[in-house]
Every structure is written in structure tokens, then in C-alpha cells.
Amino acid sequence: MVLKAPSSDSAVSQCPWRAVSICNSRRSTSHHKKLRTSSEPSRYACKGSPKPQFRLLAFCAHGVLTLRPLLAPGEMQNHPNETLFKADIAARCAINAVLRPKEDLHIATLSEMFVESQLERMRQFMMQEEEGREILKQRPLFDDRFIDYEGLRRLPENTLGYALMKFLDGNSLHAGHRQPVRFVEDEELAYILTRYRQLHDVMHAAFGMGISVESEVALKLIEFHQTGLPMTLLSAAFGPFAAPLLRVQLSAAATDVALAGGGPAAVASVTHSLTEAPNSWLQLLTSQKEKHPAASATPAATPAKTEDEQGPVVLYPRQVLLNDLLPWADAAGKAMRRRVYCLFVEEWLDKPLDAFREHCCIMLPPAHLLPYCA
């Protein structure tokens, strides 16, 4: 009902999770060769400094915030100092993942560094189950080439497919926009990593988690219990540093045009500053107090405030993540009895979401954590 027939294109059917990365990486490799053969001086060179360590320091300072074009699959084994090369990329991606948590390229690249042993372990888990063996045989892809997204939107509201599309549409996401695998040489292991990435949105829908930093970090800890990938543990360990100390959820009165200062652009700027600047919420609280002065001292004369008249809700994502969300995620990951990447999730899309949760023993977050998971 919601599945499509696989494409007959040979280039895609042979290794579809490699097709995009091979094309992009070949262009990147030719670009590197052109740079190496050029007679122009390197832009990373530190002018006026004859010491090579200074030139290396200048190169690393530039490389920390700039991810160079990546090698094509198959060239990693022939690259000199393969371990050092991977360590260099892993270090830069780890820093960028903390500085730019909304960019998935850095986290995706970091997940491919030194993961062969864990991917082999995931393959063994799949080979132990009948569904897992069938998945490795068919190698289905969870993207628009195999999934009918319009069909998912027409499903009943209590189904897994409808919940998935509600999550994707509500956050302007697309399940097929996942980074291709570049650094895993074995094709079957590369497919296993690709399937894990493509089912990440299904985990969001199943656990009812949003795309906030604290939600992503908590979900990574659950995925660590599922996969054992080092990147998931690193994300859970260092992700709290990327979580904001403070977040203010504006009420309907706070987003009023007159209160915000003139128009929709002003409303957007206030909302953005509250997200980025921890101290700017004081200005909003002050303006709220001036806009709505204190009521009479007589309790009986004070009318009950509606939900729209309530002041802004102040959340503390980092504190709650460390004290509540991560302990819940650790317990939820241990409670799961089925590995999602070993399941034919495609066959569950038109089935009730509660049935899928019961089948996998999914433990939902408690009610007091829902504002941080939305």
C-alpha cells in the first residue's frame, strides 16, 4: 500500500546508497589532485614563518571549521596514514558537531570513523534473526524510491506511517535527505549504516521526540543501546554542551504584534533572540510586566487567567537533559527488546503505532519531560 516498486536503474539498484557519494567524491578527488599539481603556494602556508609546526598549526586552525572534500569510497585503503587521516577528520567533525549541531554532515561523517567492528556486530545481530537476514538479502531503502509518502499521509491517525509523516511535515524534513556513506569500504556494512540513518526518523516518531538538541541527544543514547556505535555515545556525552541553558516559550500574548514592536518581522526577531541569547528573556519579562500591570490586591477580584494570557514559559534544557532526560533515555534504551534496524519497518507503517511500540517495548518519556521532547 505504501511501498513502491524498486527502480530499474542499474546504477541505483546495484548500490543506491553509494551512487550519490561516488559522484560527489570523484569530483572532490579530482579537485584535490588539481590543487596538488598547482604551482601556486598553499593558502594554508603561514607567511613569514619558516617553522613547519607553525604551518601545520595554521592548517589545523583552518581545518577545524572547514570540512575538506572527502575521498571516494575505495580510496581510503590506499591512502597513506589511514588511521591518522581518519583521526584528523574525526576530531574536526566532533568540534563542528558541537559548534553546529543542526548540520548533519559532521555527525554523519563522525559516525563512519572507526566503526567497522561495531557494524560487524550489528550484522551478526541481523544474521541471527529471520527478518534481519531477509533485510540484508533484499537491502530495501527507506526513501522516496521505495516509500509512498502521499500514501502515508492518507493513513489513519493512529498508524506508524501517519505519525512519521506528521513528524517529517511538522519539522520540514524529508526521509530521503540523509548523508551518503563515504568511509565504510564493505558494501554490506555500508548498507547497515545507511539503514540505521534512514530509520532515525522512525525512532523520533515512535518515541514522540522532537528535533530540539536535548531530544536528539536523548535519542542518541537510546540508539547507543540499539547499535553500540561510538558516535551515538559521543553525542550523548558531549551533546549537553550544545544544549541551551535557557529557552523561553512565548505565549500568544507575547507574540502579539503590538507587544513585539511593530510587525511580523519584530515577532520573529524576538523569538530568535530568545533562542540564541540567554539574557534576552529579561527584556520580554519586563515588557510583559509593563503590558499587563499587576492586578488588584483583592484575590476575589482577580479573574482567572486563560492559557493565552499566561506569561512566557521558561525551560532549562541543559539541566533537565542531564538530570532527567538522559537517565530516562538510558532506561528506555535498555528496556527495548527488539532492534529497529533488524525489523521490516516498512511492513509496520500501516499498522497501529501503539502495536509497534508494544512490539519493541518502547518506553515513552514521562509527562513532565514532554515540553522538552516536543
Keyphrases for this structure?
374 residues, mainly alpha, two-stranded antiparallel sheet, globular
Structure, explained:
With 374 residues, the protein is mostly helical. Among the domains are: 110-241 and 317-373, no CATH class; 247-289 and 308-315, no CATH class. The protein is built from 19 helices and two strands. The protein has helices spanning 10-14, 16-37, 52-64, 82-99, 104-110, 116-127, 130-138, 149-153, 160-170, 187-198, 200-207, 213-227, 230-238, 257-260, 264-276, 281-291, 317-335, 353-360, 370-373, and strands spanning 247-249, 313-315. It has a two-stranded antiparallel ribbon with strand order 1-2. The radius of gyration is 24 Å and the shape is globular. It starts with 9 loop residues before the first helix and ends with a helix. The model is unreliable at 19-75 and 257-301 (pLDDT under 50).
What's the helix and strand layout?
Blueprint: H1 10-14, H2 16-37, H3 52-64, H4 82-99, H5 104-110, H6 116-127, H7 130-138, H8 149-153, H9 160-170, H10 187-198, H11 200-207, H12 213-227, H13 230-238, E1 247-249, H14 257-260, H15 264-276, H16 281-291, E2 313-315, H17 317-335, H18 353-360, H19 370-373
